[in-house]
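How it folds:
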Amino acid sequence: MTGEEGTRNSDSGGDGGDDCKAQKTGFDRRKEAIAKLTRSNASFIAGALAGSISRVVAMPFDVVKIRLQLQLEPYSMGKYVGMGHCVKTIVKEEGISSLWKGHISSQALSIGYSMLQFPTYEWATKVLKVNFGINNEMINSFVSGNTAAFVATCATFPLDTIRTRMVAQGEPKIYIGFFHALGSMVKHEGPLSLYRGLSTTLIGVMPYIGVSFATYISTKRFLASLDKSLIVDTHESTTWDKAIAGGMAGFVSKCIVHPFDVVKKREQVVGFCKARRAFGKVGKSYGGTLRAFVKIVRAEGVRGVFKGLFPSLAKAVPSSMIVFLVYDGVRNVLLHKEL
């Protein structure tokens, strides 16, 4: 082979190598772009999965909780005399599928709420650290949780109102589906009816989410510190640590804000008397959050504002456990970093 041919072959081989390098670089760029897109949306993806999975598991407890919260009579005189009796009665009269009544609106609420809550929380924690110098994890988590709760609740509250109406109705049904309920409420009660009970909800849910995040983070860090095999500075923790911390977060926060949840549910079904008559007494407008507390305590005793607490805890503990487990797990897979 002549020197000229060797040079041509060498040049050709060099061009081929450059093409492969260019192709590889192009593939890497696309791969990096997808990875970047996934990372930037990691909080939304993890939040949506966490909200959806937890809702499927917790829905029956939510239905029972709402029915008990809306019962005006004392347990001994009401349609439902306790959690077990409530489940049996619902299944007997309305079928087992009724334990997932309003599931579509509940899924929309849960997914939408979690998709907004977690990214807002993470954004707020960064702002508090960078702009305000708040590095205390408990304080940061509590304030960020309050911010996340405000944003997510205001954005998804109409879904919560519709879900409550769907779950609250007996047979025959007033609403045949989510969109029928939405249209009917707007037509007959006005658009603002979708936000009935919002102020009460914000008073209760903001500290609820704040306490929930603060409890989860502090409990998880504490449990991780007990395990000498983990590097605490990396915020690394075991699955059991996340599960216990998530359950504790649900228990503590729910006990604190449950009375506000009772008042909110009562306000959301005002004007919905026809569908509630089969369940006993029908309540009228309370005229505000404080008046609602006073009227409920006077008529039903202090226990009145804690109606449905047991099924609420039975829902909140596993639900919170699943939400934090899934969220932290998916986030760790996508970002290699936990909360």
Remarks:
- Confidence is low (pLDDT under 50) at residues 3-14, 16-22.
- DSSP finds ten helices and no strands in the chain.
